[in-house]
Structures are given as C-alpha cells and as structure tokens.
Amino acid sequence: MERVLTIDDVQLDGRTVLVRVDINSPLDPESKIFLDYTRMKMILPTLNKLAKAKVVILAHQSRPGKKDFISTHAHARELQGMIGRPVKWVNDIHGPTALKAIEEMKDGDILLLNNVRMDSDEVNLRGDFNTLSDSTLVQRLASVADAFVYDAFACAHRATPSTTGFTHLLPCISGELMRSEISILEGIINNPNRPCIAVLGGIKVDDSVGVADNMLRTGVCDRIWVTGGVANLFLEISGIEIGQLNHNFLVKELGKAWKSTVEIAKSLLRDFPDSIVLPTDVAANVESSRVDLRVENLPLEAPLFDIGINSIRALSKAIKQAGTVILNGPAGVFEIQDFALGTIEMLNACAESSAFTVIGGGHTATLVKRMNISKRMNHVSTGGGACLELLAGRTLPALAGLEASAKRFEMSIQEPIDNR
User: Fold this and answer.
1) All domains of the chain, ordered by start, with CATH?
2) Are 287 and 156 in contact (CB under 8 A)?
3) Do 41 and 79 form a contact (C-beta atoms < 8 A)?
4) What is the mean pLDDT of residues 229-240?
5) Cβ distance 144 to 173 under 8 Å?
6) Nearest 5°: CA angle at 16, between 39 and 81?
7) Is the pLDDT of residue 286 over 60?
8) Is a pLDDT exceeding 90 seen at residue 411?
9) Burial 81-97 (b: 16+ CB within 10 A, else e)
10) What 8-state DSSP symbol labels residue 4?
C-alpha cells in the first residue's frame, strides 16, 4: 500500500467531513428488525475520532429490488444508542433538505443521509475518478464539505460516486476500520507466520481461484486447501467425475467466468501439484440424507454438499499445525444440519489453533459470530468481496482513491485542511 492519509494526519476539528461507511446489515424479512449490528459497531472508532467535527454519514442498505432495501432511518436510531450522542437523519441524499441540514450543523453534530443507493447515479454510474466526480451526488456534497473519510472496507472493491467520486475534489482520508483491515491483510500477505495455509470454499469459485493463484505464485501461502464448490471444480479438473448435476451447477454459477476460471485452475494444478490439497472424500445429499464416500467412488448423481469425514479430520489437523490460516467460504451447505459438519469443524479448529487466523467476510463471518467464537479468531473481516479481491492481488478502487488523493493534496502531518 502506498501512503494514504489517516485521521491522525490531519486536523479535522471544526470541519465538515463526509464519512462513507458500510453499515449494510441483515434484517428480519418480516419485521425489518436488525439481526446483526457488527458493521455499525465497527465504525464507532472513526466516529469517536471525529467527535469535534461536523460528521455527515453516507451509507447504503441492500440494493434496489431486494426486500431489505430500506431507508437508513433505523440505522440512525441504532447508531445514536451505540455512540451515546444524537444522530440526526434526513430523508434526502444531496437535495435541498440535505444541503440545508449540513449547512446548519455545529461542531460535534452527526448527520446520517438517506440510503445512497436510492440515487440512480450511485447504482448505475461507473467509470474513473473524474467520471464519478461529475455525478450530482458528488458535486453537491463536495461543495459543502472540507474532507472525505472512507471507512467502508466491505465495498472498497466497488467504484461508485460515493466511494471514489471525491478523489480529486476533497482530501480523502482513511477511517479507522479501513486502516485496520488493510494493515492486517497486507501484513499477512507480506510476512505470514509459516506454514501459511488458505482454506477456500463456498460458491464464489472464480474469486477463490484468483486468491489461490495469487497466493501460490507470490509465495504467500505454502498450501491451499479447497472445500465446497471450489473443491468440486478442482476435483473435476484433476480427473474425478463429480456427476453431471454438480458440473452443471458450477457452469451456471461461474457463467462467463467458466472458461477463464478453469484455465487458471488447470495451471495451478500443473504448476503447484503438491500445494493444492483436494478432499479425499465428500458428502452427497442422497434423498435428503448425508452419504459420505471416497472420491474414487464418484460419480454419483446427487449434489455434493460437504467434504467427507476423513477430509474434515485432515483439514482440522492442518489448521491446528499452521502458523497462519486464511479462511474464506464454507466447506459445504452449512444451512442444512446434515451438511454443516465440515464448516463447523474447520471453524472450531481455527478457534483452537495457535495460528494467526483470518476469517473472510460474508457467510463465514456470520457463522463465526453465530458460533460465538469471534473473539478466538485474530481477525474477522467485515468485507467478503473486498477481502477476496485484496488477497487475490487485485486493486481495490477505494484504496486506489485514497492513495491518489494523498498524492494530489500532499498534506503534511497535522496540517489544517484548506482545499476550498
């Protein structure tokens, strides 16, 4: 990571600061009550450091067309209770109501704008920093602000007006959560405790293959253990017949990425035959029952929903003997009790291991919290997609924006902001 500005580097007291966060939270589909508050709690250190600034929060909840696509009004109420200070909310994003509310703010005030994904440009407009800066959202909000703080690691892999549009218009500064996520993940990439293993599963197969490719070719990981849909792909490429049903599922999930993902996976098996560990047995869903069988006994025209008992034991042992464990994605369809064993056991192994354990976001992080073992992990990332992109060696647009802004504004430590 190149130099980025942090809240400690600049004097923001008394300034109007736009703060982009990711407090997108799971909701009960009927009552709309929040089921998890983790992402809200994770932005509190940034808000506390900005206690003497005028803080204008930009956030989203879900996306248009989904049942949990709601306003951010309830988020304001929850944040107010957590931080112990008033959090005002306006039913506006960048219109007259929002701009008037911002102009009337006093030092220490916090204002949460409505769901930024209710703005059409935020949902539809894509492009480089200059293109995104031309959006009405960015132009209007930049005109009434002194600085922009980015603290939404979970959507750092997306380039939208609210994430990277302020790059050339305002000094862009890393929030505390963003700084922590990048520091920990880059620290592992640059200097992991050995042996370093990655356990990659779930159905985001193309992302996981990209992570495996980067980590093996750069020498970050010593071994990659594959589970879930990732394992099914590697088994098929290695010559194991996984059955037409499972093959078709992979083709459908990967879509246009099928060919490129298969090519990368084949090159990994060719170049690192001893570094990619495939399951020796799997669990199939046969008439709603778990059936464990060795991979040599495939194909079976039934969906493969978990790794098998012997593979679970071998993976658990490897996790406990590792120096660093990077885990992303479940080992199977953990939502069904009979097929949750692989996922539960590998997470329990992480909790018992003396290794430095990093859990990617998404479903895996949610399950870790549900199992009440979060505190036994060294790092549970708030961002699934962003975490995978970073581990795969890809550029995060939001991080690139912070780096470009630091170069553009060239502010020295504690220099007061005067960009207008």
Assistant:
1) 5-179+396-416 (3.40.50.1260), 194-354 (3.40.50.1260)
2) no
3) no
4) 97
5) no
6) 35
7) yes
8) no
9) eebeeebebbeebbeee
10) -
